[in-house]
Amino acid sequence: MPDLADDCRRWQDTTLARALERSPERQTPFATESGIPIKALYTPLDVQGSDYRDGLGFPGEFPYTRGVYPSMYRSQLWTMRQYAGFGSAEETNQRFVHLLEQGSTGLSIAFDLPTQLGLDSDDPRAEGAVGRVGVAVDSLADMETIFAGIPLDRVSTSMTINATAPILLAMYIAVGERQGVAQKQLTGTTQNDILKEFIARGTYIFPPEPSLRLGLDIVEYCLREVPRWNTMNIAGYHIREAGADAIQELAFTLANAIAYIEQARARGLAVDEFAPRLSYSLGCFRDLFEEVAKFRAGRRLFARIMRDRFGASDPRSCLLRTFSGSCGSTLVSQQPLNNIVRITMHALMGILGGHQAIHTACWDEGFALPSEEAAILALRTQQVLAHESGVANTIDPLAGSYYVESLTNEIETRAAAYLEKIDAMGGMLRAIDCGYIGREIRDSSIRQQQAIDAGETVVVGLNRFQTPGEGDPAPALFEADPTVEPRQKARVAALRAKRDAGEVGTSLAAVDAAIEAGRNVMPAVIRAVKAYATVGEIADIMRRRWGEYRAAVQL
Amino acid sequence: MRGRKLRVLLAKAGLDGHDRGIKIVARYLMDAGMEVVFTGLRATPEQVVKAALEEDPDVVGLSFLAGDHLVLAPRVIDGLRQHGLADVMVLLGGVIPKRDIPVLERMGVTQVFLPGTPPAEIARFIESRIGQTH
Fold first, then answer.
1. Is the preceding peptide bond at A63 cis, omega within 30 degrees of 0?
2. What is the number of domains present in chain A?
3. In which residue ranges of chain A is pLDDT below 70?
4. With an 8 Å Cβ cutoff, are B19 and A243 in contact?
5. What CATH number did the domain enclosing B88 receive?
């Protein structure tokens, strides 16, 4: 396009240059939040060399840039998935029933830290943490309460659980069975992404190798027994929240996926058997166009990896099905109602990015677990966008924007460069182990902080447009119920007294035997949870075999 | 004033694994010329006190984001007192409801830093306080 290039230069040197003399640009340089330079104007010159069929194609077809499904939101809107789970099992049950009545279409459970770390509520290490950041689950009895009156064949449930995922999934299967719902009918997701715990979130128990083994036991078991279950949700969200930029988030998420897929193949599973049940989650941060471009680039890069690197032939193996999360770290305590606007932007990024499920944060969640009013508002935000704004009426509406397509190409190129570097280091396990990934994330988080300090990154209400005399933020807070911990301790003590101790012992021994023999632990864990063995007791069997992992301290 | 650099022990007590904030604070304190030691994740209050005995810090900084501060912070403070480290300044950072701040101060916490605090402000606070008390 020689003529256009000439025209473009002419415009720059004359029309634009004259205008800038009178009114210079308000900042230099312009860049995306991940540091990609942004030009004043994008034209067809910025996307020349891209072939439409090859780079974009059609929704539901390779390389899926425009969407993983052919009709996207014109057939079915995304799942509006709200995260809940706090205090006791009864309270979580009430919140779930309420959310379902309000039109929520999927459940998402947060577990408290002791449950995530395989500690019972009466373990001394659990003190102060029971029922805090999620619901406390000690045994199947708690899970039965959480899902009382909620038929598991009619909801899909996402469980944010990693190190103890086999135990919690076993409980979900057992609840279904007691309701008369066969495990083959269950739908939902276990996060079950342990690698990001080692690099971003810190909620690991065992060393990496046995941790990976447990994760893959779920993949393998569900393949045959719970075929509609999404066995892993490989999460970039937490990597982003730990401080990575958009490019690192995408690259490290895909690097984790590659590591899992390689491990599964090493177990003898064929890629097309298990890959269709893997799902992904990515964060929605601040920069609208960069985030949308990240999701589009992610779909294309992933599809190419699956086809070219792993030889996937089932199209479903190549789909980067995503759940998007509102990044809580973008929310600000100062002038907290502004967060409602930020969260609306997050939902918009998710919709324009073509996600299969979208989570919207609650405006008050920077201070405590969200109030019920804020949780409903988060859901209403999605409903307003879905039904009033028109943004969901055509597929991939930002495609063809010279800017968005150029960003999509650039993010794909930069993420692919990270993947090459990680491969050269010997793969993701090595890159994590040698501290490379942790350093990259930490350095990025420090750069972001420095940009806020310098005022280069503007955060409304925090470093600009502050309210004089606002003082420390003190919104109405969800009060953690101080009676939850003693109640939960009493409950687990009562459970231990009345269950069949013989079957508990036998079933725990069977878990141990499965570990020793190198068999898939799921059948034995299901048996143990049905005997009301606790999360802590089952995790203790594993701790005795594998020990607890202590990460090297890296500052 | 002492003839040595200010020493700061940073700790994640409890089960929460989010260490983005504490690592940023560590970097800013080091940039301000302080010596910083970090316990790593999931330290028990006893381990924090033990580290304080070994490292002889001027300041112990605890990060809490999971709501367990009222249970764990007093254990660290009591442990420091029992081991003759009552003069070590204890700072808290993280997600702390405002109503808990006076409670923590009565327990012996010198200052609580809330989300949005510029990390350099924490370094300046330490310098001003230790300067005042020595």
1. yes
2. 2
3. 1, 83-86, 366-370, 471-480
4. no
5. 3.40.50.280
Considering the domain architecture, whether residues A389 and A531 belong to the same structural domain is answered as no
Mutate to test the interface with A, among B9, B23, B75 (most CBs of A within 10 A): B23
Q: Could B70 and A128 be called an inter-chain contact, meaning their C-beta atoms sit closer than 8 Å?
A: yes
Instruction: Report which of A246, A158, A235 is spatially closest to residue A199, judged by C-alpha positions.
Output: A235
The number of distinct structural domains making up chain B is 1
Could you tell me which chain A residue has the CA closest to the CA of B25?
Answer: A446
Contact list in B for residue A477 (CB cut-off 8 A) is: 97
A119 at B interface, C-beta within 8 A: yes
Alpha carbon of B86: minimum distance to chain A alpha carbons (Å): 24
Report A:198-257 residues touching B (Cβ under 8 A): 201-203, 241-243
pLDDT at A369: 59
What are the tens digits of pLDDT across the range B11-51?
999 999 999 999 999 999 999 999 999 999 999 999 999 99
Q: What is the pLDDT of residue A85?
A: 59
A197 inside domain: yes
> Is there a domain that residue A17 lies in?
no
CA distances from B4 to A45, A233, B9, B130 (A): 60, 49, 15, 12
- The answer to whether residues A17 and A376 touch, using CB atoms and an 8 Å cutoff, is no
Q: pLDDT at position A358, please?
A: 93
Predicted local confidence at residue A477, as pLDDT: 46
Asked if B23 and A473 come within 8 Å (Cβ–Cβ), the reply is: no
Residues A434, A527 share a domain: no
A51 Cβ contact list (under 8 Å, min separation 6): none
The reported pLDDT for the residue numbered A476 is: 45
Cα A116 to Cα A23, A112, A131, A134, A288, distances in angstroms: 56, 6, 11, 10, 33
pLDDT tens string B66-124: 889 999 999 999 999 999 999 999 999 998 888 899 999 999 999 999 988 999 999 99
Are A442 and A527 part of one and the same domain?
Answer: no
**What pLDDT, on a 0 to 100 scale, did the predictor assign at position A479?**
61
A255 located within any domain: yes
Compare CB distances from B15 to A129, A241, A366 and report the shortest one's residue. A129
The answer to whether position B1 is within a domain reads no
Q: Which domain holds residue A524?
A: 499-546
Q: ipTM score here?
A: 0.89
Q: Measure B22 CA to nearest chain A CA, in Å.
A: 10
CB count within 10 Å of CB A87 equals 25
A483 secondary structure, DSSP code = T
A-B contacts (CB, under 8 Å): 97
What's the pLDDT at A106? 80
Q: How far apart are CA B123 and CA A471, in angstroms?
A: 20
In B, minimum Cα distance to A548 occurs at: B42
A360 in the same domain as A296 = yes
Q: Is residue B2 part of a domain?
A: no
Residue pLDDT, tens place only, A20-40? 999 999 988 999 999 999 999
For residues A122 and A116, is the Cβ–Cβ distance under 8 A? no
User: Which residue of B20, B27, B119 is in closest CB contact with A242?
Assistant: B20
**Mean pLDDT across chain B:** 93
* A459 falls within a domain: no
Question: What CATH number does the domain containing A236 carry?
Answer: 3.20.20.240
- The verdict on A336 and A206 lying in the same domain is yes
Strand A79-84 with A357-359, pairing: parallel
Same-domain status, A336 and A432? yes
Q: Same domain for A339 and A437?
A: yes
Distance CA A224, CA A183 (A): 10
A555 with B40: Cβ contact below 8 A: no
Task: Show the domain range for B42.
Answer: 7-133
